[in-house]
Write the C-alpha cells for this entry.
Amino acid sequence: MSTSSPGLQAEQNGSKSDHKDLIPEGSHLTGSDPDHERVVPNDPLARLTVKVTDRNEASEGVVALTLADPDGRPLPGWTPGAHIDVHVDDERVRQYSLCSIDQDQERWRIGVLHEPAGRGGSQAIHNTVQVGTHLTVSHPRNNFVLIPSKRYIFIAGGIGVTPIVSMIGQAERAGADWSLVYGGRSRNTMAFMDELSAYGDRVRFVPEDTDGRVDFGEYLRDVQDETLIFCCGPEPLLNAVEKSSSHWPDGSLHTERFVPKKVDASEDVEFDVEFVDSGLTLRVPADKSILEIAESAGVPVLSSCGEGTCGTCETSVLAGTPDHRDSILTDSEKERGDTMFICVSRSLGGCPLKLML
Ligand code: FES
C-alpha cells in the first residue's frame, strides 16, 4: 500500500523466554518457530515523526543520523537487528537498521550509505537531512532477530555492519562470547571503526585494498559448538558465507540481505488467491504480484520495498503452498509455509492460496 507521507520536513524553528522478554511493548512475534520469530509492531501502519539531533560522517560515504522524539519522549522499543522505514518523500521509502551499541529508547541511530548509482533515496538523505530535520519513520521491525546463544560469529561487509553494531551491544550485555570479521573496500569507507576498535582483537578489520578478501572457507572450516553466525553485507559476501558454512548444523547461519535474491519469473503462471478477511477470491495473472492484485481490489495491505527484503507485506497463509521468493525467510520457515511476503512470493505450481487478508 502506498501511504501518503510528509516525508522529510525541514524544521520550521530551527533461553527463548529470555528472548521474549526482549520484545518491546506494543510489538508481537510472528511465526511458530521460536528460533525464527520476527518482531513487528502491533500496528504496522503506525508512523511517527522524529527529529535529527546529530549528523556526522561515520566514514567516507556514510552519514550517521541520530533520531529522537521532537518532544523528548521515549521512542518505541526495539531489538538488535531491527530496522525502520524512512519516508524520504511521498514516493520513496527506504529501510535502515538501527545501529547503536546501547539499546537506547531516547534516541535511535541509523547509518546511510550514499549510493550514487541507487534510486535516489540515499542521495536525498545525504543532501537534505540536517540536524533539526523532521523525518517520518515507521516503528521498528525486526526480520533479523539475535537469537540467544553462548557464542556468536558476526560477519559484516560494508554498510552491512549497521545491524551488527547493535548485535554486538546485545552480545556484550548477555555476556556471550563473540567475534566480528568486518570487511570493506578500504579503511576510510568502513563506518563505525572507532567504536568497534574498542573491542580489541575480538574485531578483525579486513579492508580489501590492503588485506584482500576473507577466506571464509578457511575461517568457517571448523564447526564450533553452540555458536551462531550472523552475517549482513553485499550479495557476494553472503553467498560466500552461505557456501562456506553449509556443513554447519541447520539454523547456525542467519543473514540479512539489502538487495533481493535473483528470481527467474519466466515460467510464472496465474493462480487464484482467496483473501479470507476481505471475502474476495481473485486471480493473480502471471505478470502481476499478489500485492498488486490486492491493492487494485482495495484489500488493505501494507508494503514498502516491493522486492522481498523489508518484511512489511508479511501475510499469514491459511491454505496452499507458497513459492517463496523473498530474501528474509530461513529454509525451515519456508518449509513451514505458514507465512509469505506477497510482494514477490507466489503459489507453487499455480495452486490456489488462502491468505489472511
Ligand atoms: S514489501 Fe518489503 S517484503 Fe514485501
